[in-house]
Write a structure and sequence with these properties.
With about 700 residues, the chain is α+β, with helices and mostly antiparallel strands. It has 20 helices and 17 strands. The strands form four sheets. Strands 1, 2, 9, 10, 11, 12, 13, 14 and 15 form a nine-stranded antiparallel sheet that branches. A four-stranded mixed sheet has the order 8-3-17-16. β9 and β10 form a beta hairpin. The chain is elongated, with a radius of gyration of 36 Å. The two termini are about 15 Å apart. The mean pLDDT is about 85.
Amino acid sequence: MVSASCKFYSETGTDPDVAAINVQNRVNSVMGELPAEVIRNGVKIAKEENAMLMYLSIHSTNPDHDEKFLYNFADINVLAELKRINGVGYADILGAKEYAMRVWLEPDKMAAYQVSTDEVLEVLENYNVEAAPGKIGENSDKGTTPLQYTLKYTGKFNSVEQYENIPIRSTPNGEVLKIKDVANVEFGTMYFDVEAKFNGKPAASILLKQLPGSNARQVISAVKERLVTLKQDTFLPGMDYDVSFDVSRFLDASVHEVIKTLLEAFVLVAIVVFLFLQDLRSTLIPVVAVPVSLIGTLVFTQFLGFSLNLITLFALVLAVGIVVDNAIVVVEAVHYKMTHLHLEPRAATEQAMTEIGPAIVAITLVMGSVFVPLAFIDGPSGIFYRQFSLSMLIAIVLSGIIAVTLTSSMCAALLRPHEATSGRSLLTRFFDRFNAGYLAFESRYAGLVRRTAARRLMTWSLLGAFVAGTAMIAGKVPKGFIPNEDQGVFYVSVTSPAGATLERTKEVINAIATAGRDIEGVESISTLAGTNILSDGTGATYGTCLVNLKPWEERTQSVDDIIEAFKRRTEHIQAADIEFFPPPAVPGYGNASGFELRVLDKTGRGDFGEMQRVVDQFIVDLKGRPEIGSAFTIFNANYPQYTVNIDVEKAAQKGVTVDNALGTLQTLIGSEYATNFIRFGQMYKVMVQALPEYRATPSKS
């Protein structure tokens, strides 16, 4: 049995609820055309963010707790709790180690007893049933009885012995052929195609994604609180959990740094204002005006639906230096009137505002107009520019309004004329020296400008030097509006040769984890054999390692340094293609940093061999470009295959239809979902398949 998924991407700004309904309607219109097996297993439709929100690993020090036990423990006790958290759009355990009743058929015994797979499937469905027989003595108009009884049936089988003893056929003399005569019954797992480990120990790996529109930080906080409760109330002795990936970890660290920068900028502005105005009352006015403007900006951004993220905080950091200018202009203008015209604070403020009020309005409009065009950029990148530009625009407009209202009122109420001090305090002596030094610097600077302004060669040389220096510095700064950063985690993608088994992929995955476990800066390594994180798909040739790094303050190496160390440690592994990549700079924009694209075959021939040749050549051409660091693809059309050809005439002579033949092959080799049963309060499947030794090689199959 295999599964597949389709992803539908909507235009920016589309209501996710409406999009989900539209997809549901389109899917319903083609449900009748799907195979019966697909309809029986179900088609799920859900809306979710494309980005991984969290990656959890539940593990245990108890050797009896293998991966099968941990998977089902998490499925029964943890997964449902996480799905109920508001904002969680997707929560699932990677792999399919879900409990199942495995009916392992032995084809040679079936041939000896002349039992077909259809007979086995039929008896499983006929004997494993739920029923409500009814009531005895139920009232009617045909008479009455003093008591009524409800008839109950024991229900579906849920033990190995019950399934083993299901009769397939019987004879009149009492001989009964049972399932255990042609098969081995085992309480096992659904599939065996994924193996999860955490630091080399078996684990249940849970992947979470958020609902569109939800706040990632709030969802993660709620998940962590629920996990703490589950660990205390539900986990068995020896069991524990680790968060291998948490998108809020990097966001919180980034927000902390931005807030730190915001506070530093605010303090620096206050110091500079005090240093030049040299008056506490004058300094207090801009210091009050700045936070009022910023708080007002946060209020308006909330009305616009913006969250407190890196973009809005970055805008606030830049706005600190801009919004303080209007307040400083007003204070200096009032000071000038008080000092030179000897006016009272109120009269000085009124006269100053009459003169500079229109100028403040004009400056506010001009500066605001710089950011207005950015708000009209469309597409996904336009969302970032829109939040940045509108946050800046709101802060600038509010600073202008506050300058002509609050700042002017505070000037009239707080400012006092400077009076000569009788003593020579330490602060006074400092300001005297500062003023003398500043005047001397100003005089020398003015003299330098006078001497160089008339010399064109020197002027152009200085201008060229500044331009060259700017270009050199800009070349070292990361490009892009949101460059790649050290997010404290990176992925390792493993692709084994086409046709390789899961065991071969596991060897490569385990070798990578062992090689990198003692690298300085590595905190934990979660591995998945059988899963590709780039395509979110499963396959025996795919594997993924999620390397979680120590907090930034506990390591000196960057993520690039640690990736290079991994490459050196694993360069001897030649059994698979290994790629290292950090997560995307913006969660949701792909599964890795860089960019991805699709190659579409528009010829309509369906020639996968030609498609493989084109894709391989395209990768070679990409690697030849100097701008491309690395390029790879997981597309591979070279998987070994056998084609089943059926002689229809011979099949008809033997009374076998194509449906019978392929159905038998599907059951024996691919497995068949026969029925289900209830255990531990959960619904599980009964899977029918031939024993592994009967399908190990084409000759045995």
